[in-house]
Write a structure and sequence with these properties.
The protein contains 16 helices and four strands. It is of the alpha+beta class and about 350 residues long. A four-stranded mixed sheet has the order 2-1-3-4. The two termini are about 25 Å apart.
């Protein structure tokens, strides 16, 4: 959604696209992305690629092609052009460049569609060719590219896979563990002084992403399980308010991060790169161990959705960075009925400083 929504709003505004046009474009982008994921049995992160920056670029091109009403040939060219614009490595997680991946991917999708619209061309087989996109970016080295009917536009993958909403402004690899830690903190009224050790078991691919064990900045902290557990213990929440450099460097946060012990498993979920579940236990100074049941799905996932109130609160937390509460509430209400919006130009333009 980070790339698709950005591209669709940016391109839909000058085109005067309706809310329904925007939603349709989102579905188009989602389905193209999901198909590429179907074709690749490996995990992008394991090869060092950021999926949002790689598959997301082509998905944005498809979404923007739909907004521009491109025909089949023009859309083919748009996706082919995007195949040469996709880039982004996971090693840059925890820096400003991770967010740049998202902006550049949305920009590339807009550019690819606009170029195709005015006659710019790309190879029709840019995806499946022996030197094409799918093989070049294949973690497995064996993408499923033999001729087949992949039912694009007939088999709706969104209905099956859904949309996972990130409840916390952290790497998604931390979310199940944060859920567990927050539960333990609330249930047992935990305080830092009573905790001797926090043990977390996650998948090994998650551990690769969560590379920052002693973060010094908020950007680094987004990719730190140690920070995630410390923030949950001390602040009893993990929101944008905790993602500040000063908070990350607080003595009590640093001390609590040192209590975290992380282990991994090579087991995988059948439909994702993470371990089958996250497991968290807390050892108290009195010797007692508090164990949370394994967490398979994070709160906010398709299988465990946010309530309407939780979704609203998540939006307001994000929007409060640049909007007043009144503006944020108004925008949330508009977006909640997006399909009835006659033009995206009806959405308020907010200057962010």
């Amino acid at each position: 959604s980070a790339v698709l929504t950005s591209a669709i709003l940016a391109e839909g505004w000058p085109l005067g696209a309706s809310g329904l046009d925007a939603l349709t474009a989102y579905v188009v982008g989602y389905e193209v992305w999901a198909l590429m994921q179907d074709l690749e049995p490996g995990r992008m992160h394991e090869r060092g690629f950021h999926p949002t920056a790689i598959w997301g670029t082509l998905a944005c091109a498809a979404a923007c092609a739909r907004l521009n009403r491109l025909d089949a040939q023009q859309t083919t060219h748009a996706i082919a052009i995007a195949a040469s614009l996709a880039a982004g490595v996971s090693a840059n997680f925890g820096t400003m460049t991770k967010s740049l991946h998202v902006g550049r991917s949305a920009q590339a999708g807009v550019l690819a569609a606009r170029l195709a619209k005015v006659g710019f061309t790309g190879s029709p087989d840019a995806l499946e060719h022996s030197t094409g996109f799918m093989r070049a970016h294949s973690p497995s080295g064996e993408p499923r590219l033999s001729p087949a009917d992949w039912q694009l536009g007939r088999k709706w993958r969104m209905a099956e896979l859904g949309i996972n909403i990130k409840r916390y402004p952290m790497c998604y690899g931390t979310h199940r563990s944060i859920d567990a830690m927050l539960d333990l903190v609330e249930e047992h009224n935990l305080f830092p002084d009573s905790v001797a050790e926090i043990n977390v078991r996650i998948g090994d691919t998650q551990a690769v992403m969560l590379r920052n064990h002693e973060p010094k900045t908020a950007l680094e902290a987004k990719f730190s399980m140690e920070f995630a557990m410390a923030a949950a213990l001390i602040a009893r929440r993990v929101s944008l308010k905790e993602l500040e450099d000063a908070f990350v460097r607080r003595e009590d946060i640093v001390a609590s991060m040192k209590k975290v012990r992380m282990t991994t498993t090579s087991e995988r979920l059948p439909d994702g790169p993470f371990g089958p579940d996250d497991r968290v236990n807390v050892v108290l100074r009195n010797g007692e161990t508090l164990v949370h049941e394994p967490v398979t799905h994070a709160k906010g996932s398709w299988q465990k959705p946010l309530t309407d109130a939780e979704l609203r609160q998540k939006f307001l937390d994000c929007a409060s960075v640049g909007l007043s509460k009144k503006q944020a509430v108004s925008l949330f209400d508009l977006l909640s009925s997006l399909e009835r919006l006659s033009s995206l130009r009806e959405l308020p333009v907010v200057s962010m400083h």
